[in-house]
Structures are given as structure tokens and as C-alpha cells.
């Protein structure tokens, strides 16, 4: 439990700057979420917005994520059909962070209740107990001020309650149309006992996107999440997932990131019930002005749970990848099985991978492993493929896909997996040389 | 078919000379064998011919069907008809054996301006050839060479050769690590491909393989040169007396 005590008090200048920034903003008024929003703002005032000097931000500069205006980001003409277009799913569209009723399906799905944060008014709303709650729990032992910021100022989001097996995935589509948009969305998902949901999230969302998602997975429930972040080169995103897992529950999240000037994806999971399974995976491919940060914190606080973190990054032309991943095993969390791997494939010498894998274990009957590597294309393998007639560029694509395979294979559904592989392949083939 | 003249090769990164003037001509329809002590340069010759990095040709030439191959990329040499069965086949995790082979077949066809092989046709042909080599469906699906036994890897090399139908086949110690039955399978695979239009260069240490794949010509390589050339009887001589009498005396 030592780990829970080592927070440093932030310096006064940082807090003043944060206060000045927050004073200029207005917390959305009224409704059941307002007290939670006020609490979050108070948390944030005590923490301060992140700065480059913060230990947790030493590999990723937070300034463009915290500054008042979103830096401009050009809108990309993708030149391919939207991902998952062919899949039967319930579509919910936000354009530059604003709900788009025209483009969205009716918010109705069997065994699922869906409402919008901006319009749900009932004071006894189920989300009242969750909104900001998992985020607040996730502030220990490490500050996540951008998440508190989100809870306080989110303009909209979805409240999804799953009481059975959802007949098809819910797809949240984030469109980016304005070069200066600054979107803040907060979703709350509650999968009740025995419920099952697959959530798809796709698209760049905005010039700057701050998104927070709290997911409560009850005993025996399952939540699957597949996300692609949109190929707009200049976009920036700071996202958080806070998950709490009950007994025998399953949580699986996979993220594909192609392009993006700055992405910080944090995932904070707490395994609170015995025999729970949590997998978090990510594949990213970056070319040039690309900075991608995966920051993961998984806490085992129950018996016989399994967690896997699988992160793979392909970097070229000076792209930068960051991985900060931790497995914390609390006292009594016996028979924990924790696996963490973070690897990057550097396609040239200008690209960089910065990794900080950590284990902190307070139980004795535990099997945890972690590994972090970065390397170039395997020359032996490349020659072998070329000697069989594959052009060098194609052989490189094959080896790159092979490198990413372990992460992509974390997607259970084979069709969704194939769609993701197809998109990566297309990205790689566009850059073939 | 394959004509090597006065080939001199050194390592790119070091001042180490490995091939010191290799002369060798393999005619279409013929099987040539190369034997020679460890470290004499046999694998180096096969790598240099197929275009692996790390070597520098300081003198001499090599042509395939009259085309200079030394200036070509490895994939161009493959498309031109050259095939090397590796002494140590490489494991490639994450790339499926069958996917890889189909891409290779079609990449070569494309490079030669030929139509691609349809997936149905490819499946039909590969099943047939895999069966002859006793390679099961599971091995075809697995990642290239990953978890294959030594003998399985060698059989997989011959399967690739059979699918790619090259003009000039170089086999580097394809017999090493094979049990008696596998030796028979592999030899049958090679013999099935023997025809008028195809040449073979078989690198081996043992007469045993040459009992199955009967060579027309046998060469002895020592210290980076072909020091003796003869008929099949030369291999028998090596089997009996070793290389003592054949090694370069210079
Ligand atoms: N990349 C390399 N770096 C250093 N030395 C090398 C390299 N490639 C070849 N050599 C050396 O060149 C010589 C010839 O090696 P090669 O592998 O061609 O021999 P070989 O005749 O195939 O031997 P074997 O019968 O053992 O397979 C050896 O001394 C070997 O150590
Ligand atoms: Mg050798």
C-alpha cells in the first residue's frame, strides 16, 4: 500500500496557472452531474494541469493539450470508405464534439439504455453514481488532471447501460470538420451482471479531443472495445478509460492509431472481483510528425485475475512512441497472472521509442512478466522473403504486419480483426518504398 | 544456364576474402554437386549468387541465362529464375506459410509479366505438392518455419521450390538434418523437377544424397576455389578418403 502515499505536492505557480485557466471556464450548469463536475474541478485545482516537468509527463509534452485554444488541425480527406462501414451496428455520430442527430441512428437497442449526458435530466439517473466516480478512483496513486478536467467540463457524451446481451455493437463515430474544434466528451458505460457489449469508436473527433470513458463491468459481464483514432495528421487527443471489473467479468480494449500529431491514451483498470480478465492492446503506426503515448495502469485487487497489456508501435521518419505501463498487485491478490509487452519497430534511425514498464507487487503467489524492446526490421527475414521473389517494399510490409500481429490478435471478433488489419495494410502500402 | 567466372568475394565489413576465383558453369538439364570442407565458401557462393547483403564482389562475374545477376536485387534474381534452398531456413513469426508462398508466386509472375495464379488454382497445386512432401495442412497454415523441426524446414524449402518452379536451383545442404525417409521425399521432390530446362547446384557433404539425386558433375571447393571437377566417382572418392588429397596445395 506504500505506493498510495507517494504523491508530491504541486508547486504554487502551477496551481495559480491552473486556477487562472479554470476561472475562465464555466462548468455546465444544472442536472444530476453538476456536483460531480464541481468535485472534479476541485480535484483539478488541487492537482494543477500537467506540465512538462511532471514525472508522468516526462516523455510527452502536455502544453498543447492544456493551452486555452486548440491548435489548428487540417481536416483529412481519407480517400477510403469509413472503417466498419459494412458492419451491422448502432451508429451514433458526434461532429467536432457535437451530437449529430441526422447522421445518428435512434438511440435504441435491445437490452441497452442509451442517453446523452447533455440531455439526461432525471435526478435519480443510474449514471449519477458513476459519473466522475471511477475517474476519481483513478487519480490515485497518479494524478490524471486531464481526466478531472474532462469530468468538470465535458459538453456531452453517452450514458450506456447494458442489461443483457446487446444484439449488435454500438459505434460512436467522431467526425472532424472544423480546423479549430476543441471537443470534450465523457461517456459512462455500465454493463450489468451478465450483460455484454461491443463498443466501436472511430474517427479523429476534432482538432483537439479530450475524451473520458468510465466503464463499470459487473460480475460476469463482458465489455469489448475497439477503437480507431482517425488519420488526420495534425489532430491531438488525450483520452482516458477508467474501468472497474467485477468477478468473472471480461474487459477487452484495442486501439489502432494511424497518424496524429499528438495522442495520449491512458487506460486505468481496477480488477476488483475474483477471476476477472482485462486485456488492453494497441497498435500504432506513425510517420513523421507523430507522437503517440500509451499510459496504462492496471491494479489487481482480487484473486485469480488475469491482465494483459500488448502494445506495438511502428515508427518512421522521426515518429515518437511512448509506453508507460504498470501492473500493481495489491496485498492478497493471489494467483494474479499479469503480462505486459511493449515493442516498437523503428523503420529508420530518426524514430524513437521511450518506455517505462513497471511492476509493483505486494502478493506472493503471482506470475507477472513484462518486456519492452525496440528494433529494426529483421534483415535475415527480409532477405529470405526477397529471395523468394517478394519486392523489398512488400516484404517490409509483411514483416511489419507480422510485428503488429500480437496486438491485433487481441481483437476477439475475426471480422473486426480483419477490417483492422486491412486498414493497417493499406496505410503501409501507401508508404511502400 | 548459370555461368560463374573468376568470382572473387570478400566480406563488406572486414578485409576477409572468402571466394578466390570461382569458375563454374551449370548447363540446363544438368545436376552439379559441390562438396568441400567446412568453411570453404560453399554457402557464401550461394548467398552471393542470390544477392544477400554483406558481401563485396571484387572481381569476376555471374550470369543466369546470359543475364548478369550480380547487379540485381534478390527479388529480381528470383524472378529471373534463381532459387536458393537455405542451409538454415529462416523463421518468420506472424507471416503465414501459405499466404507468403502465394504472394511470392504472384510477385514473381507479376515481375515476369505473367498473369497471377488464382487462389483456387494455387490451393489445388499446393495441396498436391504438399502431399507429396508429406507436409500437412497445419504446417501450411502456420507461420513460415516457426516451430518446424529441422527436417520439416528442409521439406518446406523444397515445397517452395516446387511451387516457384525456378530455372536454376541451388540447394545448400538440404540433406542435413533429414532422416532416411525424409531424404527420400526431398530427393523425389528434386528429381521430379529435373528436366531439360532446369539446372541444379547441390551443395552437400554426403554421398548419401547423391545416391538419390545423381549428379552429372561433381566439384570440390576448397579455400574459396573449385579445386577439382569430375564425374560422380569424385564424390565416392571423397566419401572414402576425405579431402586430404584434394585440398588446395598452394
Ligand atoms: N558474414 C560473415 N562474417 C564473418 N565470416 C563469414 C561470413 N560469411 C562467411 N564467413 C566465413 O567465410 C568462410 C566460408 O563460410 P561458408 O559459410 O561459405 O562455408 P561453407 O563452405 O558453407 O561451410 P559449411 O560446410 O560449414 O557449411 C568461413 O570461414 C566463414 O566463417
Ligand atoms: Mg555452408
Protein architecture, described:
Chain B: It comes from Roseivivax isoporae LMG 25204. The complex is a heterodimer of chains A (433) and B (250). With 433 residues, chain A is α/β, with parallel strands linked by helices. Chain A contains eight helices and 19 strands. Chain A has one domain. In chain A, α1 packs antiparallel against α2, α6 crosses α7 and α7 packs antiparallel against α8. Chain A is globular, with a radius of gyration of 21 Å. The N and C termini of chain A lie far apart (52 Å). The relative contact order of chain A is 0.10. The two termini of chain B are 31 Å apart. The mean pLDDT of chain B is 90. In chain B, the strands form three sheets. Chain B has a six-stranded mixed sheet, with helices on both faces. Chain B has a four-stranded antiparallel sheet with strand order 2-1-4-5. A two-stranded antiparallel sheet of chain B has the order 7-8. Chain B is of the alpha/beta class. The chains are: A alpha/beta (433), B alpha/beta (250). Chains A and B meet through α6 and α7 of A and α2, β7, α3 and β8 of B. The complex binds adenosine-5'-triphosphate (ATP) and magnesium ion. The site of adenosine-5'-triphosphate has 12 residues of chain B, from α1.
Mean of pLDDT of chain A = 95
Order of helices and strands of chain A: HHHEEEHHEEEEEEEEEEEEEEEEHHH
Biggest sheet strand order of chain A reads 2-1-5-7-9-11-13-15-17-19
Q: Mind telling me the CATH superfamily name of chain B?
A: P-loop containing nucleotide triphosphate hydrolases
The H/E string of chain B reads EEEHEEHEEHHHEHEHEHEEH
Map the helices and strands.
The complex is a heterodimer of chains A (433) and B (250).
Chain A (H helix, E strand, L loop, with lengths): L11 H12 L10 H14 L15 H4 L23 E6 L2 E2 L12 E5 L16 H5 L7 H9 L4 E5 L7 E6 L6 E10 L4 E7 L5 E10 L4 E7 L7 E10 L4 E9 L3 E10 L5 E11 L3 E10 L5 E11 L3 E10 L6 E11 L5 E10 L4 E10 L3 H9 L4 H17 L5 H17 L3
Parallel strand pairs in A: 1-5, 4-6, 5-7, 6-8, 7-9, 8-10, 9-11, 10-12, 11-13, 12-14, 13-15, 14-16, 15-17, 16-18, 17-19
Antiparallel strand pairs in A: 1-2, 3-4
Helix pairs in contact in A: 1-2, 2-5, 6-7, 7-8
Chain B lengths: L1 E10 L5 E10 L4 E5 L6 H9 L4 E10 L2 E2 L5 H7 L1 E4 L6 E5 H15 L7 H14 L4 H5 L1 E2 L5 H15 L3 E5 L7 H14 L5 E5 L3 H6 L4 E6 L2 E6 L2 H9 L9
Parallel strand pairs in B: 3-10, 3-11, 6-9, 9-10
Antiparallel strand pairs in B: 1-2, 1-4, 4-5, 7-8, 11-12
Amino acid at each position: 500500500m506504500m505506493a498510495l502515499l507517494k504523491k508530491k505536492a504541486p508547486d504554487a505557480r502551477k496551481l495559480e496557472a491552473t486556477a487562472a485557466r479554470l476561472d475562465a471556464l464555466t462548468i455546465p450548469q444544472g442536472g444530476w452531474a453538476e456536483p460531480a463536475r464541481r468535485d472534479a474541478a476541485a480535484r483539478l485545482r488541487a492537482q494543477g494541469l500537467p506540465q512538462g516537468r511532471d514525472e508522468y509527463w516526462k516523455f510527452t509534452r502536455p502544453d498543447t493539450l492544456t493551452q486555452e485554444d486548440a491548435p489548428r488541425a487540417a481536416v483529412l480527406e481519407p480517400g477510403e470508405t469509413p472503417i466498419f462501414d459494412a458492419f451491422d451496428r448502432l451508429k451514433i455520430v458526434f461532429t467536432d464534439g457535437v451530437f449529430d442527430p441526422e447522421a445518428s441512428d435512434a438511440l435504441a437497442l435491445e437490452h441497452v439504455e442509451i442517453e446523452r449526458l447533455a440531455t439526461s435530466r432525471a435526478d435519480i439517473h443510474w449514471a449519477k453514481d458513476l459519473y466522475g466516480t471511477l475517474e476519481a478512483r483513478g487519480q490515485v496513486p497518479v494524478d490524471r488532471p486531464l481526466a478531472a478536467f474532462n469530468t468538470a467540463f465535458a459538453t456531452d457524451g453517452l450514458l450506456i447501460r447494458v442489461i443483457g446481451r446487446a444484439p449488435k455493437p454500438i459505434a460512436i463515430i467522431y467526425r472532424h470538420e472544423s480546423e479549430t474544434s476543441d471537443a470534450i466528451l465523457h461517456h459512462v458505460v455500465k454493463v450489468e451482471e451478465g450483460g455484454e457489449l461491443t463498443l466501436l469508436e472511430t474517427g479523429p473527433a476534432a482538432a483537439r479531443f479530450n475524451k473520458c470513458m468510465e466503464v463499470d463491468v459487473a460480475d460476469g459481464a463482458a465489455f469489448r472495445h475497439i477503437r480507431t483514432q482517425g488519420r488526420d495528421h495534425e489532430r491531438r487527443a488525450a483520452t482516458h478509460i477508467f474501468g472497474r471489473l467485477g468477478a468473472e467479468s471480461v474487459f477487452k480494449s484495442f486501439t489502432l492509431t494511424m497518424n496524429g500529431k499528438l495522442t495520449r491514451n491512458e487506460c486505468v483498470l481496477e480488477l476488483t472481483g475474483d477471476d476477472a480478465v482485462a486485456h488492453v492492446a494497441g497498435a500504432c503506426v506513425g510517420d513523421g510528425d507523430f507522437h503517440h503515448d500509451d499510459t496504462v495502469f492496471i491494479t489487481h485487487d482480487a484473486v485469480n485475475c488475469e491482465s494483459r497489456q500488448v502494445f506495438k508501435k511502428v515508427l518512421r521518419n522521426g515518429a515518437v512512441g511512448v509506453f508507460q505501463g504498470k501492473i500493481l498487485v495489491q496485498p492478497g491478490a493471489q494467483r494474479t497472472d499479469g503480462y505486459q509487452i511493449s515493442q516498437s519497430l523503428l523503420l529508420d534511425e530518426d524514430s524513437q521509442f521511450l518506455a517505462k514498464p513497471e511492476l509493483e507487487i505486494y502478493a506472493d503467489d503471482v506470475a507477472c512478466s513484462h518486456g519492452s524492446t525496440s528494433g529494426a526490421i529483421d534483415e535475415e527475414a527480409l532477405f529470405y522473403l526477397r529471395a523468394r521473389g517478394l519486392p523489398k517494399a512488400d516484404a517490409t510490409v509483411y514483416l511489419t504486419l507480422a510485428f503488429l500481429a500480437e496486438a491485433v490478435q487481441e481483437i476477439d471478433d475475426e471480422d473486426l480483426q480483419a477490417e483492422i488489419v486491412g486498414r493497417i495494410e493499406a496505410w503501409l502500402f501507401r508508404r511502400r518504398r | 544456364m548459370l555461368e560463374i567466372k573468376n568470382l572473387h568475394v570478400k566480406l563488406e565489413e572486414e578485409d576477409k576474402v572468402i571466394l578466390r576465383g570461382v569458375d563454374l558453369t551449370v548447363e540446363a538439364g544438368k545436376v552439379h554437386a559441390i562438396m568441400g570442407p567446412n568453411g570453404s565458401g560453399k554457402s557464401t557462393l550461394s548467398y552471393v549468387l542470390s544477392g544477400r547483403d554483406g558481401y563485396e564482389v571484387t572481381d569476376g562475374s555471374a550470369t543466369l541465362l546470359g543475364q548478369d545477376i550480380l547487379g540485381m536485387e534478390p527479388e529480381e534474381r528470383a524472378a529471373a529464375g534463381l532459387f536458393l534452398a537455405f542451409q538454415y531456413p529462416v523463421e518468420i513469426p506472424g507471416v503465414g506459410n501459405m499466404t507468403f508462398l502465394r504472394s511470392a508466386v504472384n510477385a514473381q509472375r507479376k515481375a515476369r509479366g505473367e498473369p497471377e495464379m488464382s487462389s483456387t488454382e494455387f490451393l489445388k497445386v499446393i495441396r498436391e505438392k504438399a502431399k507429396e512432401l508429406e507436409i500437412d495442412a497445419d504446417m501450411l497454415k502456420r507461420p513460415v518455419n516457426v516451430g518446424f523441426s529441422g527436417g520439416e524446414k528442409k521439406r518446406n524449402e523444397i515445397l517452395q521450390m516446387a511451387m516457384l518452379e525456378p530455372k536454376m536451383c541451388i540447394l545448400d545442404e538440404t540433406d542435413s538434418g533429414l532422416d532416411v525417409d525424409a531424404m527420400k521425399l526431398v530427393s523425389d521432390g528434386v528429381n521430379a523437377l529435373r528436366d531439360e530446362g532446369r539446372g541444379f547446384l547441390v551443395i552437400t557433404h554426403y554421398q548419401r544424397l547423391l545416391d538419390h539425386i545423381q549428379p552429372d558433375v561433381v566439384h570440390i571447393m576448397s579455400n574459396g576455389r573449385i579445386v577439382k571437377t569430375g564425374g560422380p566417382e569424385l564424390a565416392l572418392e571423397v566419401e572414402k578418403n576425405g579431402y586430404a588429397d584434394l585440398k588446395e596445395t598452394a
